Automatic annotation (TrEMBL), chains A, B, C, D:
<dbReference type="InterPro" id="IPR013096">
    <property type="entry name" value="Cupin_2"/>
</dbReference>
<dbReference type="InterPro" id="IPR011051">
    <property type="entry name" value="RmlC_Cupin_sf"/>
</dbReference>
<keyword id="KW-0560">Oxidoreductase</keyword>
<keyword id="KW-0223">Dioxygenase</keyword>
<feature type="region of interest" description="Disordered">
    <location>
        <begin position="186"/>
        <end position="215"/>
    </location>
</feature>
<protein>
    <submittedName>
        <fullName>Cupin domain-containing protein</fullName>
    </submittedName>
</protein>
<dbReference type="InterPro" id="IPR047183">
    <property type="entry name" value="GDO-like"/>
</dbReference>
<feature type="compositionally biased region" description="Basic and acidic residues">
    <location>
        <begin position="192"/>
        <end position="202"/>
    </location>
</feature>
<feature type="domain" description="Cupin type-2">
    <location>
        <begin position="99"/>
        <end position="165"/>
    </location>
</feature>
<dbReference type="Pfam" id="PF07883">
    <property type="entry name" value="Cupin_2"/>
</dbReference>
<dbReference type="InterPro" id="IPR014710">
    <property type="entry name" value="RmlC-like_jellyroll"/>
</dbReference>
Length: 358, 358, 358, 358
């Protein structure tokens, strides 16, 4: 039986020990095992919704007040997850921004080890030059600027244009793997071709240029809405004929892929477009890893964890790791989606659970 | 110094030894090392040309005289390389035939472990049903019937149709890896859709159905001429603009690929289309492995080893292993080509030499 | 020319805009592009040294004062990088701890998605049971407890034992990919075999059990010092004979690998042992990604970035991302090293620069 | 109803057609579909046994009568499958020979694209120099001379030595992929080290030299009997303890693997050692592809297709494609085995059926 005195001595010894931990640059596991190693992922990020109706006016005001150019580089406003206060991160791995380019503005050339894409929910008139290849941006298109490709933008019209950017900035930042380089101050090209070189070379189904080797990221600089739309339409029609193709009844989906490998278009980011028929309710899915969704068309409810968002065109919401997501389509709905799944698959950390809550 | 007597004794011992080799089921290496292990590939197959003008009338006569149906299965006439007498092999690994289907004829369902494709140099009106998916065959199209897929043909028109078949029959035969199964006697479908299910699901550039896994052979049942033509046209235009893409000046080329892996459309057979501008002379290429070429359009000279063939639409010629090939285009020329390169690449046996004769 | 009044108005508009950014959950890129996307990796982690002579007494005091058991799970004290204050992280991706197990103590069974290893700088007498397979821990051994393998420890001697643990806890935490499960409270086995089952099955050079499939992590539960030592000795002897094998003159190195794939023993962590001959000075190397080094034998200087550490047996130091490291051996030196390179290689983010400072 | 006259006319037309097929270099499919495309593999090769007691004396007589040297290159006598008359092929893909080297003889240096190994059923005293690395050959060892590695042999003893060679000569011949090159006439080295450089660099379980890249064939020039024996012993002991490892009860097996990839030691040839406990009867296995087996130790029955061979030390038998094999061990039995499975796996042609006859 330990008396009060020995208890006091022991406490003193413990206090000394913890003080010495700090001096020695040590932190004991036993006081924080729960936080460090939770029973299942407990993301600091939370399900959250950003309404396009809120974002767009702010982007437009930025266009009036903030110049775009060398240094800041882009007039891009990042979604900051309320669970990651002060950080410009939509999720712990994904950076997402609304970018605005005014009439006849340009954004200067640079490149970085972070992988990037643009998705256009509305408008047109901007060309992104990727390693000197001018790529038109139009509603519904997905544009890639893979790791270490020089890129710059120019708006050739009298109208502003707005789109979203997606990058793996948080991932690369946490990994201390970011490199950045400024390109020439002058635009590499003022060309405004209907089709980019990348599309002309790679944009033919199942056909590879014999001269071109495999690449980790897709060489197809743009995935056009007309093809995405046709692919989704076909899946639902095939389902009507009893043929396979859809993800589940009423729910079609395509993945933007690298034609040299069949894998994701970007090494670190999965990009997809989903289509729901009116009335469809998707089976709940819970996955390791996070994603960002943007409504392209239509009206839906999105239940993410314990929150339900009523969403419409342009609205963006995030799904943290190991958080259920279910979609209910009030109308025909198209959703663009990107996530970090390739990271987990490459590292042996992927898990997915389909179905109702355990 | 060995006398005549001991020489005779030694010869007797040697004769006995060789006789005992035979009894024991042995064959010494030292008498045939040169043949077994040549300094470089010495194919028994020879460069050879089959003229379409000769083949087509024979195919038509077969159509009059030989029924198509269960047992023989196909009205297909195989190219027999003169260097492989009595064998229906265009090269030591590749079987190639002209197939003929009369008005309203059908060819019955079967499947086999051999991989197969069809290429259409002229005509239309036949549908190939692949695992129940009806695929139209038209000029310039490449159609796949991969290993172990059930397939059957029907001609829905009043005109006969002719095309070429390519299979890995010799390879699979030498490897003792052939399996064959008869399908139902009745056609699986009489449908004649403009686009097959496979194309509707997979024929969108860079877009993968999320629901579908990787496959060793391409799920894209048909590669249409309109896409192949556009891809070749684009490569030559890009070259005019100084952009990469062509194989060499004036020589464009696409490879038919598996969108789930980026690799060859068929595991064992490489399939490609080449385009030459008038006047182009290609750099000589010598590779391990053999290939078969068919002129799709135009007039050219093909120098294969020490033979030169003047070729025109439909003509077929073969290039044996380690034999130089050079093409000279008299007009705009399109050539379909297939080869066994994937086999050598998979087995670490690939070698290619580009340039003039050593 | 903008007057004072309009300047005030503009500032007011800007202030409003920034306030509305915050309300909307947006953070502009242009104010923090430098931090988010540095020109090259600027790790918050710093080069740092922990002396074994400091750590060991603290570990022993913990052994007196802190019980080991369910909940805290392990008597492990993590190295906390001074650049990552308050976090128990040696580097932004790697968790490293000194673990102490007293005489006849046990640590209870659990498993987690985090990958782990143990490395023993001194002592013996503990067995780690990995999925029920008892693995002896001895000086110089590397022991694996891969992702999701149940593991527990028991000390069967009258002496305490101390070793280091390495895990990918920070990486998995940032990725929100952690799963944890408690095992049975009772030890799965009290066996103390000389060789574990894993070693008996897999510990034969170049020999695979035919019955066993590939695995993402190595099935070889222990890499014994006798083999590591012999491999390093052989490399230096081969160098003396003019044969290849060493990394650079006087610098030998082996990587612990997965015999089913030839890749790293753990999917997310590279583990290596290096040996330097007395007087060897290694070429500076700068890599993306971080590493932790522990001296196993001998005396050396380690220059990491702008710091130089004089190190001896048991000392641990860290190399942050994109920070030069050079080693100078005062005696024969053996160093255990682990790093996060497999993560960067899988994600296309690896870069290495060898040689003197640019 | 067709009259006799019209029948005669039709026959004449058919005869003309078939004659014209021949002239045109065509062979119709319908007359030989059965042979070209059998329902399942019908190998021309047959199950066959070569008794060591027959082979060894013939090899010794060859040693008396036939010189070894440049040109013939090796005193090797190939097993000729009775189903492949006149061909020095054990199976359609595998060449196997007994090789004999007399006291103090040497066999000159050469290299070839064919992959090769040696397996030693008895004796020692020969060193094989592989790219200048001297590798001792002893009972139970597997030695590799991969594609395009220079190799030569020298017997440093007063006793002759005999072993078997295995190569992919038939495969490479059928593929027209053979290259051959003579090396220097003089031996590259007269060294006779206990361990080769390859073993010293690579022969440590799970340990890779950091400086060495992946290779298609194993860099481990020799797999020693002591390791093979230990691995097989361990599997059977583990089975006694209820742990996994054996192929089936009483049947252990190891595969010789490439430590840089975990795959087969040679790209085109699988090499394995099997051990059976007395009384074990293996489950019948039928696979696409062929194999050659050599008894290393013990007495067994081997039932291959409809033949049963009673086999003892040194005896060699072949298993053609898609032919059942069952082994019954009368004593403790060790069997070396090599096969062409990697070829079929790479080409998507592998199939295996386990269990009693369908």
């Amino acid at each position: 039986m330990m008396g009060a005195a020995s208890g006091q001595i022991e406490q003193k010894l413990l206090d000394d020990l913890y003080a010495d931990f700090e001096t020695a640059g040590l932190i004991p596991l036993w006081t924080q095992r729960d936080d460090l190693m939770p029973m299942s992922p407990q993301s600091a990020a939370v399900p959250h919704l950003w309404r396009w109706a809120d974002l767009l006016p702010i982007a437009e005001r930025s266009g009036q007040l903030v110049p775009v150019g060398r240094g800041g580089e882009r007039r891009a406003m990042a979604l900051s997850n309320p669970g990651l206060p002060g950080l410009p991160y939509a999720t712990p791995t994904l950076w997402t921004a609304i970018q605005y380019l005014g009439p006849h503005e340009t954004a200067p050339s640079h490149r970085h080890s972070q992988g990037a894409f643009r998705f256009v929910v509305d408008g047109e008139g901007v060309w992104t030059n990727v390693d000197g290849d001018a790529v038109a941006m139009r509603r519904g298109d997905l544009l890639l600027t893979p790791s270490w490709a020089f890129h710059e933008h120019q708006n050739v019209t009298d109208e502003p244009m707005t789109w979203i950017d997606g990058l793996d900035i948080p991932l690369v930042s946490q990994l201390d793997a970011g490199f950045f380089e400024f390109g020439p101050d002058e635009l590499s090209t003022r060309a405004t071709p209907e089709r980019s070189r990348g599309e002309r070379l790679w944009g033919h189904p199942g056909l590879r240029p014999i001269s071109q080797p495999d690449r980790p990221n897709s060489p197809l600089a743009a995935y056009r809405w007309e093809h995405t739309d046709a692919a989704l339409t076909a899946q639902l029609e095939l389902a009507d004929e009893g043929a396979p193709g859809v993800i589940e009844p009423g729910h079609a989906g395509v993945r933007f892929s690298n034609p040299t490998t069949g894998k994701d278009a970007l090494v670190t980011i999965r990009t997809e477009m989903r289509r729901l028929r009116p009335g469809t309710r998707t089976v709940p899915v819970r996955s390791v890893g996070s994603s960002v969704w943007q409504v392209f068309n239509g009206e839906a409810s999105a239940t993410v964890g314990d929150k339900t968002f009523e969403v419409t065109k342009g609205d963006l919401f995030v799904v943290p790791s190991w958080c259920d997501i279910t979609l209910t389509a009030h109308t025909h709905v198209d959703l663009f989606r990107f996530g970090d799944e390739p990271v987990y698959e490459a590292l042996g950390l992927a898990r997915t659970f389909r179905g109702d809550q355990k």
